[in-house]
Every structure is written in structure tokens, then in C-alpha cells.
Amino acid sequence: MNRRAFLGFLGVSSWLTYGVFAHAQSRVPIIGLLERSAPAGFRWVDGFRDGLRELGYIEGKNLVIERRHTLGHEAELRPLAAELVQMKPDVIVTLSTPAARAALEATKTIPVVFLAAGDPVATGLVTSLARPGGNGTGVSVLSPDLATKRVDLLRQLTPRAKRVAYLVDLANPSQVVSTKSSQAAAQSLGIKLEIYNATNAGEIASALRAIPWKSIDGVLIGGDPIFLAEGAKIAETIRAAKAPAIFPWRDFHDYGVLMTYSPNLYEVARRGAHYVDKILKGAKPADLPIEQVSKVELVINLRVADEMGIRVPQELLFRADEVIR
Questions:
Q1: Residue 2 placed within a domain
Q2: Are 279 and 90 in contact (CB under 8 A)?
Q3: Cα three-residue angle 217-220-221, rounded to 5 degrees
Q4: What is the helix, strand, coil percentage profile of the chain, to 5?
Q5: Coil, helix or strand for 158?
Q6: Tens digit of pLDDT for each residue in 24-41?
Q7: Do 282 and 248 fall into the same domain?
Q8: H/E run at residue 115
Q9: Which tens digit of pLDDT belongs to each residue from 221-234?
Q10: Which structural domain range is residue 158 located in?
């Protein structure tokens, strides 16, 4: 090869090397969001986006987000998870235990960050909170502990309660675990917990008609997203029955409920952004311990209490993180 040809070869080679390097450097990460919720459901996506923005990630600039959601169960979530996997995202972020299970079933290689998962060990998402193993990690809302506490709060609200209706979606694995905790807590307090299983809007309507409103002492609402989607109907029925009730998410206050006890999903999602950041920088999900929510908020609406003729004990008001007057 003569000198001119050799120099030309070096120039082409350098250009190709630079082009490959530049392409690698300019590649925009793709985040897949898989959630079990209604389109206007939980406000968690705002918290997730804000958390990413604080870490320097701007959607449409140096980050792409592909979002898929359904109110269906795992059968409806699986094709959405498969669709996201085909896009080869850098990370899949999920909301709810069923969505996390669908994502982890769809891929064993793409990192999965699950948010608001119930008990990740009891529901089979991971083998350990400290060392998750596999390709999944995230933030747990410890739903069994929350369920137990809600039973206790309802007893404080209605000290003479003996019969309580529990509206729950037992097709959600985390709700099965929570129900067992609720039943144990109720039994220890001498309360009969009557289970009303509902997995869709029609079954919720049937359950609300079946509850013997004149003879129950209180109501517990399970944490499944389907109940938030039907929140207006549930809240209206409970207000009309003037039944003391505790709901699982702060978002229910949009529909006029008496009391909620829940983690702040906005903050949970912000924490999830930190997991994504670590993974994009090379961390392995298997090595990232699962974070357990430490702050849980009790919010009481005294306007609703007055409307329903319910006197909220002063001790509960002192304990509340927020009282709506």
C-alpha cells in the first residue's frame, strides 16, 4: 500500500471509529413504564418524572419514556410487557405487584424497577429484600403492615366496631397477602371481617349493593388500583350509608372520603428515579437492596366527617399528618 492510500485508510478508519463512538455517546436511554391503573389514576408518573429531572434526565431531550397501562390483571399486562421488551428499553419501571410480575416474566435480562409493590418476597418478586437477585429491584410499600394498621385505625375511629366490610381484589397477589394480615388483625381485636371480592367495575357495583350497610360498623377498602378508578362511586355510596371507612391512597380524597392512610406515591416514584439512575450508570438490580417506605400519611377530612355525622376522636386528629377542615 502506497503512502497516500495508507493515509486515506487511516482517515476513513478514524472517521468510522469516531462515528461509532459518537453514536454510542449520543444514544438516548429508553425507559418503559408498565402500570396497572386508569389513565387519570395515581399521580405517580409526575413524581417519577420530577425525580428524573432532578437527576438531569429530561424526557424528549436525553431520555425517552414509553408508557403502557391497563386496569386489567396479569393476562392483560403480559402483552403490554412483551411489547415494551421488544423495544429493548434500558429499564422497565412498573407500578403495582401484577405489573411487576408481568415484566419479570417477560424478561430475565432487562432491569425492572418496581414501585409500590406489596410484599416483594411473599408475592415472589424477589428472594430477599437485601439482595434481590435476578433483574428486579425497587420500592416496597409493605402492604401487609399497612393493612394491619388500617384495621387498628378503623377501630380507633369506631371503638365499638364488631362487624367490618372489606372490599378487596383477590386477583391481585399483594392483596391476598394484605387480606391475611387484615383478617389476623381484625380477629385479635374481636372484629368480624367480611370479605367482598371485586375485580372490575361491575363486581364493585355488585359488592356495594351486597354490603349490609345498616348492620356493619365500618368499611376497609383494599389497595388495588381498580378501586381508585371507581373511587367516585365507592365514596358516594359510603357517604350515603354514613359508614366509617378508611381508604388506602391519598388520591381518594379527590372523591370526598373521610380518612386515608397511605404512603405518598409521588415520593415513592421519586425514589424510583434514583434506582433508574443507578442502573443507567451501570449498577445491577441484583445488588440494589429494596427500599421500604418509611413515611406513611394519615389524612382526615373533617368536612366529610361532619356531613356523615361521625365524630373523629381527638387522639386521631392529633396523630394525623393532615386534617382537612
A1: no
A2: yes
A3: 145
A4: 45, 20, 30
A5: coil
A6: 445 899 999 999 876 655
A7: no
A8: strand 112-117
A9: 999 989 999 999 99
A10: 143-262+297-324
